[in-house]
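Complex 98.
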Amino acid sequence: MNIRAIIQKIKKSFNPHEELSNEAVLGFLHVLESVQEEGCSCDEVFTKIDEYVEREVDKKDAEDLMPLVREHLDLCPDCCEEYEALLDVLEKTSKDQK
Ligand SMILES: [Zn+2]
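Predicted structure with zinc ion bound:
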């Protein structure tokens, strides 16, 4: 979900010819809620990233199990950096064990 799509969604929830009513404000809040539900926050991703990387290295099914984390990693350079660092460490340790 990018910013442009969010703005489109918000615009669609308003009737531009009317004054902002309570209903419109509620609709706006609803849109914001649904946007938040669709993606992960950085905090959420940080709590799941260990598990994600372990699955990625171990069974290669991380993307299927946690698509929202994958989506967030694609969008967020900070979390992606963390993910790549962890992946690097895990791949090295799993090679050492073999
Ligand atoms: Zn992030």
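The pocket of zinc ion is lined by residues 42, 45, 72, 76, 78-79 (CB under 6 Å).
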